[in-house]
Amino acid sequence: MMQPTIRDYCADDLQRIQAITISGFDGVSIAQNIHNQLGPVGGHDWTWHKARAIEDDVEHPQAAVFVAEIDHQVVGVITTRVDLESGIGLIPNLAVDASVQGQGLGRKLLQHALAHFRACGLTTAHIETLDQNPIGQHLYPAVGFREVARQIHYAQDLTAGNASE
Ligand SMILES: CC(C)(COP(=O)(O)OP(=O)(O)OC[C@H]1O[C@@H](n2cnc3c(N)ncnc32)[C@H](O)[C@@H]1OP(=O)(O)O)[C@@H](O)C(=O)NCCC(=O)NCCS
């Protein structure tokens, strides 16, 4: 593999990072779980919701987003939020193109984000992964995260008249 480089996100990257995120999150996405159980939400399939989440990530006022490139091709992305007041750096999304997974790029993107958090003076980094995502559960402790909580997500279809009153 050619040496990857990591740089700041720019607006031209949006469609590419949405595509990488959507294909990467197939099988490890809350939006997809909801779609699988309740059907399309608001008339949109889960990939639309994932693309929107990435748009929210890049437009967020505290956003710091980085992409990994190999041979001038974007092959990975990490989205973050830098909250100087709370001291917390949040990582909402991380994805690496399937063609180059398992070669250390995810770890590099995480380390880049963590270095950015430190350079900003943040004191804590926060990331989540799903119970159904073994790679996240391996990778995050490997770069220094410790498990602090488990959460259960619920969703309810408000249109089918099946909500209990
Ligand atoms: C998570 C993701 C970004 C990691 O990117 P990557 O470039 O493959 O990551 P790395 O190569 O740096 O590290 C992957 C690690 O997971 C390990 N791994 C791979 N498959 C695994 C599995 N099924 N179970 C446990 N660990 C696994 C690899 O061995 C490697 O660990 P090592 O360096 O100790 O050997 C990438 O797999 C991805 O895009 N996944 C889909 C989206 C996703 O899950 N994002 C994170 C959501 S929380």
What does it look like?
Strands 1-2-3-4-5 form a five-stranded mixed beta sheet. The radius of gyration is 17 Å and the shape is globular. The model has no long low-confidence stretch (mean pLDDT 95). It has one domain: Aminopeptidase. It is built from five helices and five strands, in the order βαααβββαβα. It has 165 residues and is α+β, with helices and mostly antiparallel strands. The longest helix has 16 residues, at 105-120. The protein binds coenzyme A (COA). Coenzyme A binds at residues 24-25, 28, 94-96, 101-107, 129, 133-136, 138-139, 142.
Summarize the structure.
This protein is 36% helix and 22% strand.
Termini, distance in Å? 57 Å
Q: What would you call the quaternary organization?
A: single chain
Number of helices: 5
Mean pLDDT: 95
Cofactors and ligands present?
coenzyme A
Give the overall shape: globular
Q: Estimate what percentage of residues fall within beta strands.
A: 15-25%
Poorly predicted regions = none
Tell me the CATH topology.
Answer: Aminopeptidase
CATH superfamily: Gcn5-related N-acetyltransferase (GNAT)
How many E-type strands? 5
Q: If strands are numbered along the chain, what order do they take across the biggest sheet?
A: 1-2-3-4-5
CATH class: Alpha Beta
**Shape-level CATH architecture:** 3-Layer(aba) Sandwich
Structural class: alpha+beta
Number of domain modules: 1
What's the main sheet like? 5 strands, mixed
